[in-house]
Amino acid sequence: xxxxxxxxxxxxxxxxxxxxxxxxxxxxxxxxxxxxxxxxxxxxxxxxxxxxxxxxxxxxxxx
Length: 63
Known about the structure:
29% of the residues lie in helices and 22% in strands. The chain is of the alpha+beta class and 63 residues long. Strands 1-2 form a two-stranded antiparallel ribbon. The radius of gyration is 18 Å and the shape is flat.
């Protein structure tokens, strides 16, 4: 896989890097967060949980 940089924005280090090993393969995922955001990770997770709670009221959950 090739790494093609974006030319319309400055280079910066990733905000998070995760390595996952599956057998003999190592997957490396780099994550970037929006720099000028006002919402925190906790705010975003709360929105996800609220949406899941609303969806759970409409449809039965089966495991």
